[in-house]
Design brief:
By secondary structure, the protein is an alpha/beta fold. It has a nine-stranded mixed β-sheet. Strands 6-3-2-7-8-9 form a six-stranded parallel β-sheet, sandwiched between helices. The longest helix has 20 residues.
Length: 447
């Protein structure tokens, strides 16, 4: 068990929740930042704007110097929000960050190739990658090629070819000593860190089962507008198309699936499950399912059940629970984070006093490391493998088949368009009735 744990941590970089405990400095890996850490924001939607504000809210001298987005209106809205008089960050603190935004018009880049122009700027030290996930592999590639430290949102891809690219780039980033933080923020959340450390130290014995959930309501949806090309419509309504989002099991439930992997110190060897479109059946909801239920099966035979759905007016739960041979944990919800033995005794109970919002901690830690010239964060490999777990789950529900890790990872099905242009067509197109093809278990090919 302990040997497996060490091998997993070595492979995934998950020592101390993403922190490699022996920081390396002075290796010439882009450590020579000046007094100001300069940042390029790639992807100017709500998450990108929030991540930029969190970067600017750290105690370091951080400045946004470039912005890039496929859409000018999104970039302009983000710039307006970042330069407002006051901004409330994810930690709930009102901060004045407008003086830290120095993005003249010639450093505002729009279009499909905007990311390359922003990342290539020589004085940029850190890039924030927050576009829809389908673009993440190519944007990560550009950032690594240009020797930038990186914060990239989860998930990190939407198909197996994208995952393989990210895994290869993760190794390159390690060689270059580039800090890479992935937005699986539970790895920077104190109650998870404290509880899972104790689980790994054997407080609950061997983990033999568990449940992970993201069951809630539907997110936003964008209606088709007059004169939109199919490419623009899908990019505006990106949550409902797999080449951009990967389905909500990938875009959202990856958080909980990642916790299962973290607790088990492993990734599933096989997955089977079921899913479909029970409530969201209209053409505006593209091709994705509205519910998925999975069995995640690990090499030691442990099965973790996984459930995600997006139904209005139903029971909601976003949490994880695990059962061990010595005890259990029923929730990671703040003060409810309690490790218990089977006689009713409390092994550990979390005190949430002093906890900082993990979305902010991600940036606090990353920018502190960059400012000190330290190499501390290598999240990309685990981010890719937990994303692959979610993609593997989608493969299982779409096909109705038992999917094994190696065959899933080696799949050559590439969802990304052959050409990126406003007048080019994505690979999935609506039929005469406006409805998009939807996976049919037993018929759909995913490998």
């Amino acid at each position: 068990m302990e040997n497996n744990r060490r091998e997993f941590l070595k492979a995934s970089g998950l020592i101390a929740g993403g922190v490699i405990l022996s920081p390396l400095a002075g290796y010439g890996y882009n450590s020579a930042v000046g007094d100001t850490i300069k940042v390029a924001l790639i992807g100017c939607g709500g998450r990108g704007t929030g991540a930029a504000a969190q970067a600017l809210s750290t105690s370091q001298n951080v400045q946004i110097v470039a912005m890039a987005d496929a859409f000018k209106d999104r970039l302009d809205e983000s710039y307006k929000n970042l330069t407002a008089k006051k901004y409330k960050n994810a930690a709930g603190t009102v901060v004045d960050i407008k003086t830290k935004v120095d993005v003249p018009d010639d450093r505002k880049f729009v279009g499909f190739d905007a990311f390359k122009k922003a990342i290539a700027l020589k004085d940029v030290d850190v890039v924030i990658l927050a576009t829809p996930p389908g673009f993440r592999p190519s944007h990560f590639e550009e950032a690594v090629k240009n020797d930038k430290h990186i914060f990239m949102e989860k998930p990190v891809a939407t198909d197996a070819p994208g995952i393989r690219k990210v895994l290869a780039l993760a190794e390159e980033a390690k060689k270059k000593k580039l800090n890479v933080v992935v937005g699986l923020q539970r790895h920077y959340q104190r109650n998870y860190l404290e509880a899972i450390k104790r689980i790994h130290d054997g407080a609950l014995g061997d983990i033999v089962g568990g449940q992970v959930y993201w069951v809630g309501s539907s997110p936003w949806m964008k209606e088709r507008q007059p004169n939109q090309t199919e490419m623009e419509y899908q990019m505006r309504n990106w949550y409902y198309f797999n080449w951009l989002c990967g389905d909500h099991i990938n875009e959202q439930h990856v958080h909980n699936i990642d916790v299962a992997n973290w607790v088990k110190n492993a990734y599933p060897t096989q997955i089977q499950g079921t899913g479909g479109r029970e409530v969201r059946t209209g053409k505006q909801y593209g091709e994705i399912f509205d519910h998925h239920t999975l069995d995640l099966v690990y090499a030691d035979g442990t099965t973790i059940s996984s459930q995600c759905r997006q139904f209005e007016g139903t029971w909601n739960k976003v949490d994880e629970a695990f059962v061990g041979t010595k005890g259990r944990i029923d929730s990671f919800d703040g003060k409810k984070t309690i490790l218990k033995d089977y006689k009713g005794g409390v092994i550990y109970q979390h005190d949430d006093k002093g906890d900082i919002n993990p979305y902010q901690v991600e940036h606090d830690d990353l920018f502190a490391a960059v400012a000190k010239g330290e190499y501390k964060f290598a999240d990309a490999e685990n981010g890719a493998k937990s994303t692959m777990t979610a993609i593997m789950g989608r493969m299982a529900t779409y096909s109705g088949k038992l999917i094994k890790w190696d065959e899933a990872l080696n799949s050559d099905i590439n969802l990304f368009p052959d050409k990126l242009a406003w007048d080019a067509n994505p690979k999935i197109m609506p039929g005469p009735d406006g409805l998009y093809p939807v996976a049919v278990p037993g018929k759909t090919i995913v490998i």
